[in-house]
Amino acid sequence: LAKERGKNNYQFYSSDLNGLSTRKMELENGLRRAIEQDEMMIYYQPQVDLSTGELVGVEALLRWKHPQYGMISPLEFIPLAEETGLIVPLGKWVMRTACMQNKIWQDSGFPAIPVAVNISVRQMEDEYFVDSVTEVLQETGLDPQYLELEITESIVQNIEKSTLILRLLRLIGVKLSIDDFGTGYSSLSILKHLPIDKIKIDKSFVDDIIYHSNQGAMVKTIIDMGLNLNFKVIAEGIEKKEQVNFLIDNACQIGQGYYYSPPLSVEFMEAYLAQGVSGYSSEL
Ligand code: C2E
Ligand code: MG
Ligand code: MG
Ligand code: MG
Predict the structure, then answer these.
(1) What are phi and psi of 113, to 5 degrees?
(2) Where is the signal peptide (predicted)?
């Protein structure tokens, strides 16, 4: 017992030296109960037609309101959920909640638009992933065409298995998009063989349009190639009017970013849906 206590004391002491690892441990433990305790919530970020400003979709973005630490970014806790495997139940909760919410909006008379849900590779590797998508759609009654799954280029690391899963998802009728396109090691020539509907140009390239010397050369190339392969192309992280102009001039039709709206709580998203405008840019 003494030995065990000694060991625990040591761990406590060592993690105390490094506040970060204490936080990491607490978050990992908290993650297990966060769903039951109602600490997880989803914000929705509008996706708009760049020429008309019309709302064409929303992306579901997970938020964790931690009892001690307050709002925690998914950039911090999603990797922990992936490490521990908790991403599987957590990801299913996100998918179910987002589909349920979308169905509620459609049933209350708002124009039907797809909700995009981020999917980790770790989730796609789970043998029950395709079943869980079917189950969520049945449970919520959402028409599959209004669920879009955002996956990343890392799926190409296991291209044969991924292709099979993507084909099954296609059969179910959901839409598929490649998130953060351009940041991974895939190329459009690999992606052209996959049953994908859309690519999302990563924010770093959209930033290039105004902040760097190549003046959007990459963005231009990605749009051209994407459209040639019959993908829809959406630009992420749009913050400035100049970016919108450049994107429209180069035939990119859809965009998402703070310029239009930050991710919104359900309440603010409903105000947006009702008025077609946001004006809540303080709420990031
Ligand atoms: P992502 O899927 O690429 O989502 C876009 C991120 O960019 C979001 O960050 C969004 O708030 C942010 N963003 C949107 N417009 C702008 C802009 O104009 N400027 C700037 N600076 N940022 C903008 P967020 O919500 O913090 O999410 C970060 C990442 O966490 C997401 O990147 C996604 O990879 C991951 N994530 C979020 N929710 C989930 C989830 O439910 N499941 C999984 N597996 N991953 C998630
Ligand atoms: Mg995304
Ligand atoms: Mg992205
Ligand atoms: Mg990302």
Answers:
(1) -135, 155
(2) none
